[in-house]
Amino acid sequence: MLNRFMADESGATAVEYGLMIAIIAAISMTTIKTIGQNLATHWQAVDAVIPADVASIVKPTTIEETTGNPAP
C-alpha cells in the first residue's frame, strides 16, 4: 500500500497545474496593470492637448443641417 502511495503522481500533477495557473495569473495581472498605466498616461497627454472649452471652437449644428434640409 505504501508503494502504491509513493508511485501515485496525481497529486504532483495537480500541484504543477496550480503553479502554472498562479504564474499565468501573475503575468496577466502585471501585463494588465502596465497596459492600464500606459493608457492613463496616453489619455492624460491627449487631455492636455484638447482645450477645456471645446464648445467655443466647434460650431453647433442642427438636425436640419446634418440631414441636408435647410434650416428655417
Protein described:
- The protein has 72 residues and is an all-alpha fold.
- It has helices spanning 2-7, 10-49, 63-67.
- The chain has one domain.
- The protein has three helices and no strands.
- It is rod-shaped, with a radius of gyration of 30 Å.
- The mean pLDDT is 79.
Features:
72 residues, mainly alpha, 3 helices, 0% strand
Write the H/E string, N to C. Answer: HHH
Q: What is the typical, i.e. mean, pLDDT?
A: 79
Percent range of helical residues: over 70%
Euclidean distance between termini CA atoms: 95 Å
Number of helices: 3
Low-pLDDT residue intervals, each spanning 5 or more residues: none
Count of extended strands:
0
| Proportion of beta-strand residues | under 5%
Q: What is the total domain count?
A: 1
Give the helix/strand class: mainly alpha
Backbone shape: rod-shaped
Give the C-alpha Rg: 30 Å
- Assembly state (oligomeric): single chain
Biggest β-sheet description:
none
Task: Give a nutshell description of this structure.
The chain is mainly α.
Task: Please specify the SSE layout and strand pairing.
Layout: H1 2-7, H2 10-49, H3 63-67
